[in-house]
Design a protein that fits this description.
3-stranded antiparallel β-sheet, 498 residues, binds protoporphyrin IX containing FE, Cytochrome p450, disordered N terminus, alpha+beta, single chain, 18 helices, disordered C terminus
């Protein structure tokens, strides 16, 4: 049209070419222009990473994510191209960052409060513009986050300590439910049950079938992990997504039933004040018309799945000297009684053990964000809409720590400046449960250690335990059976359930 307007006599492109030039030259010229454009496009990007290569680069990089898994692909790219890399996911520019100054910049600023993920994938698991974890609509997310902040701080946080102690003792008394035929403990299952029970007691308060829900949560995680970065074409093939859709429906259905029971309960109780927990607050917000039923359901679901497996407990088995050190501290601080909130700041070795476990064997090694405006990070231009993956797992092994590739409490002997260690993320979209998570991990670990010695099964030491889940938010080990041997300690007092 432009050619026509500017030069009506010459709008036929072949007539621009001298008669002597064969007609076949035109497509070749066009192709060369096209290649020149692509070549120029590649050269303009100052950020290290694989080449665009006529669109093959984006295909290969997305393929790599699907084939290797997000975690392995990120480590591969950072290792190959450096700590600030540009790749593509679903054709969208994606930066993988493991440099502490850049990670700090992203976490700190409000224009990175969104995340990214396949819209269709998130819709299938109920997270699209609902709940908090992958709610990528900043306005909706802002309305939801205060419900979580309130429930995970203040009086709830203090109450959680006693709940964790009680629940750990209760579950240790029922070890037979998680014991394999060979007589070993499936510790992953045990931890999941304790986490679910404590979360239920504090946030929902409705009796539930633990083993059934634990299984549904596991399947939900698998679905989340599988669908988060799938290309749209995957969702066109219904039999491929069916299994995942059903897993999501299953857990959502179970939550719906529990929330309905909660509604019934709230309508009959005398003193509402005593039942004003997280779920009640959401239900009342729905009654006021502030939240949809779907959103309430998703928020409760996410709160119940958020407490990740504190699997790092397995490290005790490989580090008996650390275990002894912790036991000495526990005895010195608490003597014969169980843990209370005043003890928390005095358990320094336990705290460093948890930090070192999260650093060395992280439960969350990637954080996904999206740039909501143009920016410059450490000299690299970032366009609005760019996807960002913060590779904190790698970052924690690259900078500052004296023994980065070893599990050693020496790594936390000196005060670690916050920019070098961010297992919970930070800033406006940081982990909303970071304080309660530390409290839960300390309370459960101390209660467990006071009663049992934990050992991995002979021949299945830590080196044999593969982390094969790399979800960017709350990953869990999908190792089906992590078996351990629990031996009761002789010196714990009688009334503590040992
Ligand atoms: C070892 C324990 C935990 C670790 C390492 C962890 C880590 C993280 C990380 C890295 C993020 C992303 C932060 C960011 O984008 O900057 C996150 C988000 C979140 N965490 Fe945790 N977390 C833990 C425990 C918990 C617990 C116990 C809860 C609640 C019961 C919780 C609730 C959440 C929620 C709701 C979000 C999403 C926040 C948002 O998007 O606004 N986390 N967590």
């Amino acid at each position: 049209m432009m050619l026509e307007t500017l030069n009506p006599t010459h709008y036929n492109i072949t007539s621009l070419v001298p008669d002597t030039m064969p007609v076949a030259t035109v497509p070749i010229l066009i192709l060369m222009c096209f290649l020149f454009l692509i070549w120029n496009h590649e050269e303009t990007s100052s950020i290290p990473g694989p080449g665009y290569c006529m669109g093959i680069g984006p295909l290969i990089s997305h393929g790599r994510f699907l084939w290797m898994g997000v975690g392995n692909a990120c480590n591969y790219y950072n290792k190959t191209y450096g700590e600030f890399v540009r790749v593509w996911i679903s054709g969208e520019e994606t930066f993988i960052i493991s440099k502490s100054s850049s990670v700090f910049h992203v976490m700190k600023h409000w224009h990175y409060v969104s995340r990214f993920g396949s819209k269709l994938g998130l819709q299938r698991i109920g997270m699209y513009e609902n709940g908090i974890i992958f709610n990528n609509n900043p306005a909706h997310w802002k309305e939801i986050r205060p419900f979580f902040t309130k429930a995970l701080s203040g009086p709830g946080l203090v109450r959680m300590i006693a709940i964790c102690v009680e629940s750990t003792i209760y579950h240790l008394d029922k070890l037979e439910e998680v014991t394999t035929e060979a007589g070993n403990i499936n510790v992953l299952n045990l931890m999941r049950r304790i986490m679910l029970d404590t979360s239920n007691k504090l946030f929902l308060g409705i009796p539930l079938d633990e083993s059934a829900i634990v299984l549904k949560i596991q399947n939900y995680f698998d679905a989340w992990q599988a669908l988060l970065l799938k290309p749209d074409i995957f969702f066109k093939i219904s039999w491929l997504c069916k299994k995942y859709e059903e897993a999501a429906k299953d857990l959502k259905g179970a939550m719906e039933t529990l929330i309905e029971q909660k509604r019934q309960m709230l309508s009959t109780v005398e003193k509402l004040d005593e039942h004003m927990d997280f779920a009640s607050q959401l239900i009342f917000a729905q009654n006021r018309g502030d939240l949809t039923a779907d959103n309430v359901n998703q928020c409760v679901l996410e709160m119940m799945i958020a407490a990740p497996d504190t699997l790092s407990v397995i490290l005790i088995a490989e580090h008996p000297t650390v275990e002894e050190e912790m036991m000495r501290e526990i005895e010195a601080v608490m003597g014969d009684r169980d843990i209370q909130s005043d003890d928390m700041p005095n358990l320094k070795i336990v705290e460093n053990f948890i930090y070192e476990s999260m650093r060395y064997q992280p439960v969350v090694d990637l954080i996904m964000r999206k740039a909501l405006q143009d920016d410059v990070i450490d000299g690299y231009p970032v366009k609005k809409g760019t996807n960002i993956i913060l590779n904190i797992g790698r970052m924690h092994k690259l900078e500052f720590f004296p023994k980065p590739n070893e599990f050693s409490l020496e790594n936390f002997e000196k005060n670690v400046p916050s920019r070098y260690f961010q297992p919970f993320g930070f800033g406006p979209r940081g982990c909303v449960g970071k304080f309660i998570a530390m409290v839960m991990m300390k309370a459960i670990l101390v209660t467990l250690l006071r009663r049992c010695r934990v050992r991995t099964m002979k021949g299945r030491g830590l080196n044999n335990i593969q982390k094969n889940n790399d979800l960017s938010m709350h990953p869990i080990e999908t190792q089906p059976l992590l078996e351990m041997i629990f031996t009761p300690r002789r010196n714990t007092n009688k009334n503590q359930g040992d």
